[in-house]
Every structure is written in structure tokens, then in C-alpha cells.
Amino acid sequence: MDQRGGVWQWVRGHPYVLDVAYAVVLSVINVLGLGYSTYAGIEFREPDLWGILLNVLAAFPLVWRRRFPLTTAVIVLTAYMTLGFLAYSSTGGSVAALIAIYTLGTHAPVMSGLGVTIGTAAVSGIYLHVNHERFAAAGIPSDLWTVTVQFFMYVGLWIIARAVRARRLYLKELEDRAERLQRTASAELRAALAEERARMARELHDVVAHHISVMTVQAAGARRMLSRDPDRSIEAMRAVEETGRSALDEMRRIVGALRHVDAEEPPTAAAELAPQAGVAELDALMGRARETGLDVGLTVVGEPRTLPPSLDLAIFRVVQEALTNTLKHAGPTRAAVVLRYEPTAVVVSVTDDGAQRWHGGAPRPASADRVGHGLVGMRERVTLNGGTLRTGPRSVGGFEVQASLPLEEVTV
After folding, report:
1. What are 77-110's pLDDT values in tens digits?
2. pTM of the predicted model as reported, rounded to 2 decimal places
3. Measured on CA atoms in the order 196, 345, 319, 281, is the torsion positive or negative?
4. Each residue of 215-232: pLDDT tens digit?
5. Do the Cβ atoms of 378 and 318 come closer than 8 Å?
6. Whole-angstrom Cα distance, residue 404 to residue 345?
7. Residue 162 and residue 110: Cα distance in Å, rounded?
């Protein structure tokens, strides 16, 4: 089955090969058919050079039917009708004529294609009328009914071909539209990731700048105390070492994964001195959320501990983005934030009941279309810190965002 499908796909990808094949086959059949002087009771002329030439012209031009549909159809149909009027036999001429009319419908302009089709049907009717006695002697009907049926057969074939053309164009438009939508979605996703990484780069600048500033102050103090109080100088240098290790740890977590840096908006001096967002600011964050109508509470499980700045910031951003999504998609509702300290990880989860409550009724179920660029950036941030993010509707209704961020033991 796969082999046949592969052959069919190859043929569809090389349509001119198929055109050459049946053009050559029909031409050979036409030429060989000239040897019949009598067929079905109808007598034909003896074969000669004109008969051979007309039979070739009645089929072989189909090789160019896709490139020059109107010209090809006119040549094939004219040669076919001429063969009939001159009483030459044409075994495959009728098949070639039908292919030519089909080509008019699928590739030629509407008016010219329909005009040639109707003209061919009219000439065919004239041919049947002129040779009425000849066909009647052979027992072949050539009355008005036969002419009418043949006329509608030609025109009907052209209409079918136009319908096939319209369907092909429609499917091509659908494919192009799907490709454009895919490119647009990919571009938007890349833009969201770039924006999130640029923001993380600025935040990393704040963290590193803070550590370096502390190290500079501590090193200056150690230098001044070196001659007066060597012990305190040693403690200050140990603090410099610990601060440097912490800064290097932050750089190891994030810098290696960043691809783009927002160089157009350098942080100002005020931004460098501003406090870094983290777990300590969660109460203020939820206070602002309550002001917008969101009923939200924070629960801390386990013994709180000092977190690396990147993890501290990642937890804050996860909660911030999750609450923003809740307000955006569910409106004023109820939400819960749980921060759990485990021996080797910190787990933060944000859940909501999924929708606004109308007149005390039950909340609407959460929909899966809530996953947007915000969650893409959230997942990027969690992944850069070596964690995992799980998002989706809850079985009891509502939506849940849960991030698990690993803790690493730092040896000094």
C-alpha cells in the first residue's frame, strides 16, 4: 500500500509525465487504427499521409495541454472533427477529444473554454447530420436525440471539469491559509519567547549588579581593615567569596540559555537599586489582585528558607502570570496560591474555580484555550531554572498552574 501511495504521489508531482504517456499511447492507437477500412459497418478511407498526420494531431498535442490548454484543445478537436468529415478512422480520437474538453474546463479561461466546447458540440451535430444516411446504413443512430445527448455530454464534461478546478483552487487556498497561520503562530511564539527572555536578561542584570556592588563594598572594607583588624578582614573576604559564588550560580542558571538581550532599553540607575521581586512580595501582589475583585489567599507549607534570587524571582513571576490569566479568562472569582517547601524543591501552585458566578450559580468549566503567550513565557522561565510546569483544567472545575523548581545545595 505504501509503495502504491508513493508511486501515486510521484505521478502527482510529475503530471507532465502522465500527459506524455497517454498522448503517445493515443497517437499510436490512432495511427494503427488507420488500417481498418471497415469498422462497425462504417467504411473508412484508405490510410495515407494526411490520415497519419491528422491522427497524430488529434492526440499528441495533449503533451502541452497544461501549458497551452486553449491552443492544444483547438488543435486536437479540429483534427478530430476533420478526420470525421474526411472519413478517416480514428480509434482513439474520441478519447483524446474528451480529454481536450476536460482540459478546457480545468485550465482554460471560462468564456473561451465554454465557447470552444459549444462550438465542438455544434460541429459534431453537423457531422452527424451530414453523415446521417451513412450512419443509418450501419445501424448507428444519428437523429436529433443523439445530437442532443452528445451536446449535453460535451457541455456536461466541461462543467464537471470546472467544478474540479474550483475544488482544487479551494483546497490550495486552504493549504496556503493554513501555512500562513502556522507561520504567524510560529512568529508570535518566537516573539513571546524573545520578549520573556529579554525581560529575564534585564532582571539578571539587576541580580548580578547587586552582587557585584556588595562585593565591591565588602572588598573595600576588607582592604581598609587589613592592617588594623586582620580577622574582620578575613571575614569580609569570605563574604566576598560567598557573594561571588552566588552571582556565578545565577549566571550559570540563566545566561547559558538566553539567546536575545534587549539592548535598546538599558536599565536605569533607579532600576538597579530597586528591590528584586520575589516570595516576600507575594502578599503585595495578591493585595493588588484583590483590589481588582479576585478573592485570593496564600498558604505556605513547610519551613521557609532563603532561595537563590533566580528561583525567588521565578516563583513570583509564575504567581503573577497565573493570577493575571485568572483575571483575564475567568474574571472576578476565587483563587488559591500554595507555596510548598520540600527538601529538594519548591512547589508553587495557583488554582481558581474557573469562571464568574452568575446569580449564585455554578461556575462554568475551564476551557483549554487559556494557554497563551503568558504561559509560554512562564514555562520558559521555569525550564531555564531546571524546573517543570504543569497547566490545565482541574477535574473539579477551574484551572491550575503548578511549577516545581529544584533546589541545589551550594557548597562554599
Report:
1. 999 888 888 878 787 888 888 999 999 999 888 8
2. 0.47
3. negative
4. 776 677 777 777 777 777
5. yes
6. 7
7. 8
Q: How far apart (Å, rounded) are the C-alpha atoms in residues 157 and 116? A: 13
Cβ atoms of 47 and 35 within 8 Å: the answer is: yes
Check: CB of residue 368 under 8 Å from CB of residue 185.
no
Q: pLDDT at position 371, please?
A: 46
- Cβ–Cβ < 8 Å for 83, 115: no
- 162 exposed, middle or buried (CB, 10 Å; 0-12, 13-18, 19+)? middle
Here the cell at position 281 is 512580595
From 289, 347, 355, select the one nearest 323 (Cα to Cα): 289
Distance (Å, whole) CA 280 – CA 192: 27
